[in-house]
Amino acid sequence: MNIIYKKFLPESFEACYEVHMPHNGMRLDQFLQEFFPSFSREQIKEKIKSGDIQIIGRPGRMKPNTKVYEKERILAFTHKTIHEDEWWNGEKLELESNPPIVYEDEGLYVLSKPPFMSTHPTGKHLFFCATVYLESLAGRGTHSVHRLDRETSGVLLVAKNPAAANKYTVYFEKERVRKCYFFIGVKNENYNGAKKFTAKERLDTGGEGLMRVLIGHHPEDSGIGKRAETAFDILHEEGKYVLGLAFPKTGRQHQIRVHAMAHGLPLLGDKIYYGSYKMFQSFKDRYATAEDYAFMQLPRHALHATAINIPWETEVLPKQRKTFFGPPPEDIGKWIRENMSLDYDRFLETTKETIENYFSKSDK
């Protein structure tokens, strides 16, 4: 491994790489391209020229054609700029930079992750990340146990040490974790009006290249794709919209979004499954029309991980479990208050009761 260490802070990212024999004598820009695949060759050259790349032991600024040699160590700095900003209909969104910690002990953080925050650094998203935020508070490294999509808000477990990470990861791998998501769906002709139903469509992986974001679904008995199961409970229906809960039994990519769409309830704000791949690209490349924005209504898909129930075992109570709750964030709450004729606070109370009842029945 060429990587010696990585250090993530809310405003900067520092990484140290060691040159190994296969890279001996390589140009500096070519060497860095292997470790920053999301950066273009020109962006790499600009980083070198700006002084963000240093070779330990060599004074002064480097050049793109500077040769690197075995055993040398290279420091690369990336500073937070506008590349992680989120925009909606020409306006920059205000992101929640200090999300609340729902629970904390010696081995675990339970974070209420806001929308657009990544679980951990990946691609161009290096700073607005759950692990980076928590590391900046703790002053030490953290370990992601599971992940939520960047647009999905909600309850997220992050371990403080390897032992805790292994403990909670095993719970997820063995399907001992129960999860509940709150969503806003939009009815179409495929919705049969059922208040409770279970989706069992099999899900395949995305396509090639840019199409990898699009997950397909197939009949339960088709044998194509992987087994997936989600239980749905529709709590409120008004006009063409529904407010509901989804209880995924498996953890496939885009599972709830695809299962909801397959049963005639695509999620409000979902640019792929409520819109289309073409519409998704128009938002991604910022050429969406006014009609597209009006159709989506929300800057992100209306999906919130509202509760998670995990084993909380002790020697005295080996079968004990614990539930962590996180109410929907302001963007979802604001939409509901403006578009639904219900008592929102009371609705949240009864929703929590429904979730608690579901989890308690699962114990029997």
Summarize the structure.
With 364 residues, the protein is of the alpha+beta class. The chain contains ten helices and 18 strands.
Keywords:
3 domains; 18 strands; single chain; 4-stranded antiparallel beta sheet; 364 residues; Structural Genomics Hypothetical 15.5 Kd Protein In mrcA-pckA Intergenic Region, Chain A; 10-stranded mixed beta sheet; Pseudouridine synthase
Structure description:
The protein is 26% helix and 26% strand. It is of the alpha+beta class. Strand 7 (101-104) and strand 8 form a beta hairpin. The N and C termini lie far apart (48 Å).
Strand content: 25-35%
Total count of helical runs of at least 4 residues: 10
The CATH architecture of the largest domain can be named as 2-Layer Sandwich
Helix content: 25-40%
- CATH C-level of the largest domain: Alpha Beta
Oligomer: single chain
C-alpha-based Rg, rounded: 23 Å
Mean pLDDT: 92
Distance between the termini: 48 Å
- What is the 3D shape? globular
Describe the largest sheet. Answer: 10 strands, mixed
Number of strands: 18
CATH superfamily of the largest domain: Pseudouridine synthase
How many domains make up the coordinates?
A: 3
* Classification by helices and strands: alpha+beta
CATH topology annotation of the largest domain: Pseudouridine synthase
Report the uncertain regions.
Answer: none
**Helix and strand string, N-terminal first?**
EEHHEEEEEEHEEHEEEEEEHHHHEEHH
